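Lab notebook, bench 4. Still working through the backlog of constructs that have no structural model yet. Next entry is a single chain of 744 residues. Request: give me the structure tokens for it.
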Amino acid sequence: MTEYAPDITPEIVAEHGLTDEEYGIILDRMGRAPNLVELGIFSVMWSEHCSYKSSRIHLSKFPTKNDRVICGPGENAGVIDIGDGQAAIFKMESHNHPSYIEPYQGAATGVGGILRDVFTMGARPVALMNALRFGSSDHHKTRSLVSGVVAGIGGYGNCVGVPTVGGETNFDTGYDGNILVNAMCVGLADQDKIFYSAARGAGDPILYVGSKTGRDGIHGATMASAEFDDDSDEKRPTVQVGDPFTEKLLIEACLELMATDVIVAIQDMGAAGLTSSSVEMAGKGGVGIELNMDDVPQREDAMTAYEMMLSESQERMLVILKPGKEAEAKAIFEKWELDAEVIGHTTDTGRMVLKHHGETVCDIPLDPLSEDAPKYDRPHTPTPRGKVMDAGDAPEPADYGEALLKLVGSPDLASKRWIWEQYDRHVMADTVDSSQSGGDAAIVRVHGTDKALAITTDCTPRYCKADPYEGGKQAVAEAYRNLSAVGATPIAITDCLNFGNPERPEIMGQFVGCVEGMAEACKDLDFPVVSGNVSLYNETRGAGIPPTPAVGGVGLIGDVTKHAGIGNAKDGDTLLLVGETVGHLGQSQYMRILHGNTDGAPPPVDLSVERWLGTWVRKAIERGVATAVHDLSDGGLAIGAAEMALGAKLGLKLGASPKGAATHGWLFGEDQGRYLIAAQGEALKLLLEKAEEHSVPVLQIGTFGGQRFQMGELIDVSLEDLRKAHEDWLPGYMAAPTLQTEAA
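Model written out:
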């Protein structure tokens, strides 16, 4: 017969997201029934969000090292070498469930959390990115969700003083009941001043710093590990409340503390709050931990140990200090008007002991909470591959000009200016270029140097749904291509793997396929995974989201004066197409938007070609002969060329499609591994010579000039009409019927 403590019932165990089998393991590891505090701690630490119990065995397939990786997965963020004794530290995480329930605070605290992941390692945050997926533009909640999420990202990032320099925004009916809000942060640190989270030994004081603990966010990690249902609005109390001004003080105080010699280990309080931070620090160091809950700064009366341990109140950190350094550390935080209290110490017991009001309310072994957490090899069914669709399988548009205007003004391809103008992109004064205005990657100068980081986020969920393996490869390859297109050497990626319920074999099949495709691309492109996050159970009433393995890529530009941009074409430039075009229309925006067809296989990704052509393009940029460059992706050649024309504020006259090529496949096919380059004079001559020398497939396909976008008799639209179609959709959409009416 299963054993329960007096205040525990099978229903309470189930409410904590634990199965009967998992509860049985807890009984075995503890040798007795857990009380409510202990059950809550096991619940959050064994949640999908914290333990990765359905994904750990597959995440091990990722390559995690190369010559520039200093620290890979396992810490708060990944660390790469950018030369001169400096490091870039970065991570991407999800805040999906909170952002659907409470859009403003969900998105805002997602930004706050990812900032803490980075500065807890000693880095000053220098750039934020976001990857957003909303439901169909026809769905009654979409406008209010867009409005709240964008306001939350801008409200937090702008106030804390870190620029939001790029990202992506998609709309799809698959996200109607479960939007995705993935936040990425990049920071800079000296390599000899990087801080880690592992405790060292017994007897070290534990300092709690930052905001006081409240009741917001309790069970946030558990909620993020469950599907939505008709009662999702009742989960609002599990969404945290953020304060960016306190976060700014916390950043400065922590960086000042890090300039001293008092820290043994430091960890932010993210998902599962005080529980996860203390368990992870002690577990990594192989020590025990004892906390006195009476000493935890509290902003609400009569808080229980259960509430304090599971609260996800924001802007909090946990620091293990060298003995005798308590007063020095506390003085720094008091100067910044932040709470700082010693709440416990490390031990040699390997156990977590909590005391409250003079009683021991928790005494559990630490190993089962982390290393011994359940690990599942869930059944998975591969996704059937669709038939390859080329131009011969697809109808031509009745009017090519109208087709171009409709595509460039569609929700996914339209300008997102309405969004990014709400973000401060230039605070700190090191933003060289922002990907939000249409560029392939954001460029942020390494302060005080001629170097720059290039940063991008990418994923094409419709590819992943049609063929998870090929879609996973493409997500990594496009991030690689985007960095190459601005002249950056790709170094490493972070990821946010967003999927539905892993207990369904078809969903787990999507996850496994995407991971294996990503792993192959990372290996072949020497583009390893150094950090990341898994977000599962993104479902509502049994309907899962499209598989969305978002990739955040970081690269290095050695000389920031030698970079390329999408809008750098000049009057008289020749437009060059780099790479082969077959005319793949399966899963294309052309078929989806113009013909309502979502059939077919996505375009294949040849990783050897991606690496070869990416290297060639980067060298051309480094030589200074390619300053206007754009990679080709959604919408194909026609959309890429239109974006370059709009960026340069110049018309473009395209030549006819090559002999034997179907025009609609040539213009709208989404073949991978391709770039557009604009050049003239000696630069053009050298590009063509180098292409011939290295057998790179290059075609001259058009000329910039005037104020019209043309292709023979098929397309003749004014640049102004093209711009209007591109720019007007989102502001017009957001100004449509009132948000209050729709939300009701």
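Notes after review: Residues 659 and 666 are 11 Å apart (CA to CA). The first helix runs from residue 10 to 15. Flag for follow-up if needed.
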